[in-house]
Design a protein that fits this description.
The two termini are 30 Å apart. The protein has 213 residues and is α/β, with parallel strands linked by helices. The strands form 2 sheets. Strands 5-4-3-6-7-8-9 form a 7-stranded mixed sheet. It is globular and about 50 Å long. It binds S-adenosyl-L-homocysteine. S-adenosyl-L-homocysteine binds next to β2, α4 and β4.
Length: 213
């Protein structure tokens, strides 16, 4: 199936019905074909609103969750964004249409390589993908206007909080990996950090160190 008009309409309808209402987010999600980020067996289920398996035992997130997280970040066209957890690259591609610059990191080199090829094919030239342990952020590129973590941490990692600009925001799923997690939005003010809880979610865990492949 290609991202034809019918599939696209249903996909966007599902997003709206789950609370993705921001016009710029919906239009970015309309433009980025999710199927390009899913290799192999599950490829033909790309337009269903569910997470799907990708290489290295990881998952591509559920589209409505991608939409909710992106919407919560309120990205502006001049923003520099860090994503921790490249996975398939789908979330990064959507960020790339909304932001000036996107840095994305994953602990699996193989995922970074596969995603980078898709970014190239789609001519998303404002994304740079690195293999790294993202819990330490990217000190060389910091500070960031926006940070999105797409793996669950027990607490928002300290180095990421430190790499957030004053006035910047981060969204991160927080909680034990085998339990329901909460999607948290952190806003950095002059005087400190403000936390608000958005909804419950389920993500693969943020893991220390680099993966084997
Ligand atoms: N955003 C992705 C989904 C990510 S799944 C998408 O759009 O497809 C979570 C990803 O986080 C996995 O690929 C996993 O390898 C990665 N990850 C887990 N712990 C990490 C860490 N410490 N540093 C970087 N990436 C990590």
């Amino acid at each position: 199936m290609s991202f034809d008009a019918e599939a696209k309409m249903q996909f966007l309808f599902a997003l709206r019905s789950k609370g993705v209402t921001d016009k710029s987010v919906l239009s970015a999600m309309e433009r980025i074909d999710r199927q390009a980020f899913i290799q192999g067996y599950f490829n033909d289920r790309a337009y269903e609103d569910m997470p799907l398996p990708i290489a290295c035992g990881q998952t591509i997130s559920q589209p409505s969750v991608v939409g909710i997280m992106t919407q919560a970040l309120q990205i502006g066209p001049r923003d520099k964004v860090l994503e921790v957890g490249t996975g398939s690259g789908y979330q990064a591609a959507i960020l790339a249409l909304l932001a000036r610059r996107v840095y994305t990191v994953d602990r699996h080199k193989r995922l970074v390589q596969t995603a980078s090829k898709v970014f190239e094919q789609m001519e998303l030239n404002n994304i740079t993908a690195f293999t790294a342990d993202g819990s330490f952020g990217l000190p060389d590129q910091a500070p960031f206007d926006r940070i999105i973590v797409t793996a669950a941490a027990e607490d928002p990692p300290g180095p990421l909080l430190a790499q957030l600009k004053i006035g910047g925001t981060m969204v991160v799923p927080v909680g034990q990996s085998d339990a329901v997690q909460h999607l948290i939005r952190v806003t950095r003010h002059e005087s400190g950090f403000e936390y608000d809880e958005l909804r419950s979610v389920r993500f693969v865990p943020l893991v220390e160190g680099l993966g084997k492949d």
